[in-house]
Amino acid sequence: MPKRGPGTWKFNSSLLKEVNYVTAFWNAWKLLHFGTPGKKRKILFLLWLFARSNLELEHLSIADGARIRAREQWAEAGETSSSYFLHQEKSRAIKKQFTGIKNAQGAVVQSVSAIIRVWCIFYVQLFTAAVLVPSDQDFFINSLAHSLSPAEANLCDGIVTEAECLKALSKMNSNKSPGVDGLSYEFYSSFWSVLGADLVDVHNNCFSTGCLSFAQQTGLITLLYKKGDKLDTKNWRPISLLCTDYKILAKVLTNRLLLVLPTIVDLEQTCGVPGRFSSENVRVLKDIIDYDNCSNIGAATISLDQEKPFDRVDWNFMLRVLEQVNFDASLRAIFSLFERYEHASGAKLNVKKSHGLLIGSWKDRTDLPVPLNWSNVSITVLGCQIGNEVSVDWDGLIGKFQDQLCLWQGRHLSFRGRALIANVLGLSLFWYHATVFDVPTLVISQINKLLFPFVWGKKREWMARASVTQPLAAGGLGVVDVSRKVTSLRSIWLGRFLTVTNPHPWSSFFDYHVSLVFNDQDVLQLLARDNIPAYRVRKLPPFYASLVRAWIDVKGMKVGQLWVVPRPPLDPLPVAEFSARSAYGLLSKYQHTDHRSLAKFRDWGFSVEWKRVWASLLLWKFVRSVEDTAWLSFHGILPTADRLLHFKMNVNPSCFCGQPETLVHLFTSCPLVRDLLVWFTLQLNRYDPLVILTDGDILFGFSSASSIPLVFSALFGILQHQVWLARNKHRFENIAPCSQASLRKAKSTFRFMVRLQKRHNPVGQFTHEWLADGIVGSITDQGWIHFACDFIM
């Protein structure tokens, strides 16, 4: 079996978060005076070597390294799922490995040289252009109806500027594979003030000389296995890894083209053009199919796929067959046009991947000599299944959603981490289809039955869903409310209908259906009404009914000649500025309900600054288990004995100290926590001898008016977490609590947290807020934290 090669070097972008590395870079840069570009390159190369040989080994953990190599895009801060990452790394490596490959004759070769030769021949043939016909090129070029004005042409012309390059760089995604030089987007972003001007000069020199540098012309081809026979070259997708400086230049040119695309691309092309909405084409196709079926009009919808340039098809024979069987001349003309376009551009129609749908009175037609995959049931267009009496496969999407959640069950995630995964990797599966099609209430209910148990990590939900879906800053987890999200997606359609100068054809179907139900009123007249009867809205097709209901839900109105959405206490928002995001926020405000904890703690006599309390959860963002305990405690839903008894669960009502176990008792008066409070108060009084702890301070942290540094609130949150862990060990493992053991573990967690905070805070702020001006510790000349003895022993 061929031995796997060593791969190529890649700059580890995580080093840019290390203050020591960045400081070393800048110090080296400032101390040296550069006379030539060669000297600059030499210094940069030495710094790269420094990063590779020293800091990578010193700072990267095994788990994080495995995560990077496994190409895992999602990992929570503080997560230590080492075995998971190592397994994923191994799995990914196996997928990329092949022991042999078939040559053009179908024989399997296994030696390294033979494998390389097969791939070279394959890609030479793949990237070789087809022979084109100039006269056919002239035909299509002379048929172009749109052209740029001189002013528009100037937008695409001129030298590259530093502002353009920086804008392009800022829009690029992080954690992407670099090219042969190994330098990432993050590297250029961090050191743009050093490299930016020189890079712009390089780009403009390329334009003036008409030649890119060697690195810019070089790409690394990596192969990704798709499916099927691993010995077949066609089942491996080539990915070209290009240098970041080249991609910055390409992005600059792309941004220029985006400025003029709406001028030269017809309105029917909705994908990839700024200001247009690709789902409109899917919507109008669905409406056409429904209308033709209802009216029994014979028609066909075809989905054509462009084949790779090196494929060959004898279209002359196909066209003769079409003519011989007397098929529609218009359809023959379409295929003749494709043949002519192929001769002009080198593109080909991929017959195997092209599909046709028979609708209306043509559903049972059998004389179909056109070489497509015909169906009278459904076809897939832009990722959506459309057809005759065919609905969205919501069950299939729900199955994928469930599978995605199951993939994360083995990860040690916090509540916030689970909420993020559910939102970004789970619920995102539905949003595209939910944008184009109506989502039944039953489907939303099925999604919620999977969503919320995953977020809680168990079957029981300890808090109302209306609280869980509130933003993080308001004490929720930010879990997306599916029903609210679907309604907010309708705002995209409403905005386009009410503001676009040249409306898309789907708008005509909207007007048509509204006029049938509302006695010849059009959509504009309907939406301007103060009262829209719900019983009539239900008579509209489901999708268009959801548009009208969304307008009602956001309380849209017409003021003079302007369509607006109210948003008290601010001025009304013009529909032209209305988005799905703003609609979701507005709906959340209308449907807001207070957390039950607000009334609960108020009844218990606590006056709480809730906005500050929710913000304080960020103190433990690097120790998510502590954050989870604090979040549950702040909401008063930590599963203490009194709460479990409230849910009719059979548990011992007593704390390990013999007193009734409640949240307030466990964290304020239990002997275990009192022992920890003695030590905590001693440290606090070293900073401020006059401060007196109240139960409110213990449960919710110090008030915003207090001058107490953040570190003390963070420290006590860790102590409370250790009390909770000791309680669980006693209740479930019958291990007696020990204040010294709990304090020792709390100190260890505390030191870890403070070290992480040092990386994310300016020195002055860190010294005051996290070292309490020397009470917790100090920073040495070497930049290390020297903790006070009480925080070590």
From TrEMBL:
Alphabetized CDD domains for the sequence: RT_nLTR_like
Domain called Reverse transcriptase: residue spans: 228-337
Domain Reverse transcriptase zinc-binding: 578-675
Domain of life according to the entry: Eukaryota
Official protein name in the record: Uncharacterized protein
Protein species of origin: Paramuricea clavata
